[in-house]
Structure formats: structure tokens, C-alpha cells
Amino acid sequence: MHIPDGFLSPSVCGISWLVSLFMLSICVKKVNAFINEKIVPLMGVMSAFIFSAQMLNFPVAAGTSGHLLGGVLSSVLLGPWAGAIVITCVLTVQCFIFQDGGVIALGANILNMAIIGTIGGYFIYRLISKFLRGTLGILAGLAVACWCSVLMGANVCALELALSGTSPLKITLTAMTGIHALIGIGEAVISVLIVTFILKARPDLVREIK
Q1: 30 found inside a domain
Q2: Where is this protein found (predicted)?
Q3: In a domain, 33, yes or no
Q4: Which of 28, 118, 172, 201 is the most buried (most CB within 10 A)?
């Protein structure tokens, strides 16, 4: 889902950057409203963990592999606004240090994974965990939100490629949805295992919707 340079048109890149920067400015304001000595090191640790976890790929279908995105995981532990900042930092380091995704296309990658995937996924988690209370609500909401977040990011990525004239929407959407539906399952399983462990060790770190 990391789009390299040359695949998106200048207009799609420009709009993606504008939307991403606007949303990130909101995220920064939201985080500044509740920032404390606890949240800052947690954001740093979460950034390092997700960065490291994304280096590990798991096999999917037809020789394709996927890796943890971590957007919903970070939002459940830190909140959606801090989670989006964490994923943005991870994507930026990957882009400039490891050339994973293009510099010009970075705005689109941030939009797809840090904004739509993280914030959008969190509100799915919030909706489910409001109806299913306790540990069941947390884990069920997390699993569904993780799967949906991967699909949402992939679908928007397909739309961006289609609007750029890179590939017809029907072809891109079919390919992206099929593969990322499987990656989303891996995302859900890994995230649920991590949060299950945290619930036993440090339950205070997990955001349960009141």
C-alpha cells in the first residue's frame, strides 16, 4: 500500500498532501490538549514498536506478503489523534530512510494509512466496543476495526491510482481488495494477540469506551 513516486498525478498528490496536513494539524491540536509526561514516552515506544513490527512480513496468497500496519492498534492504546501522529512518523522515516513509498506520494500514504486507516479504524472500534462491553468488546472491536482499516486504506489507494490514470478502478479495486482482505486478517490476529497480552499486564493502557 506504500505508493511510490510516479504512480499518482500531481493533482492527486497535491490534494492528498492538503488533506493530510489539515488532518495532522487537527491531530496535533487534539494531542496538545491532553499531552502529559505519560503520553509522550508511550508515543515514542509505540512508534519504535510499529516501525520494527512492519519490518516483519507474513505470507499471503500467490507469493504476496503483508505486514502489520498498526494504525488501529496505536489508536486503541493512545487515542486516534496520537495514533495518527505515530503512524505518520513511521511512514515518514520509512520513506526517507528506506525509500518505502515515494516522497511526493507521502501525502497520499499518510492519508491512506495514518488518517483513514488509524482514525477511521478507531471509530469503528469505538462503535463496536460501545455495544459489547468489557474484554469481549475491546477485542471484537479491535479485530473488526483492524480488518476494516486495512480495506479502507487499500480502497482509497485504488481510487487514487484510478483518478491518476494509472490503472482502471475496477482492476485496481479488485486486486487491492482481494489481497488486503487477507492482510487485514493478519492485522486483526496480530493486534488482538498484542492487546490480549497488554490487558493482562497493563489493562490501564487500553482505551475501553465508556
Answers
A1: yes
A2: Cell membrane
A3: yes
A4: 118
CB 51 within 8 A of CB 94: yes
Read off the pLDDT band of 210 (50, 70, 90). Answer: very low
Distance between CA 11 and CA 101 in Å, rounded? 18
pLDDT, mean of residues 61-88? 89
Q: Is pLDDT of 209 > 60?
A: no
Question: Structurally, how many domains does the chain consist of?
Answer: 1
Residue 180 C-alpha from the chain's centroid: 13
pLDDT score of 60: 76
Per-residue confidence band for 208, with pLDDT thresholds at 50, 70 and 90: low
Question: What CATH number should be reported for the domain holding residue 115?
Answer: 1.10.1760.20
Report which secondary-structure segment, H or E, holds 96.
helix 80-98
Cα–Cα–Cα angle for 51, 56, 60, rounded to 5 degrees: 125
In angstroms, rounded to a whole number, what is the distance separating the alpha carbons of residues 147 and 47? Answer: 21
**Residue 27 domain flag:** yes
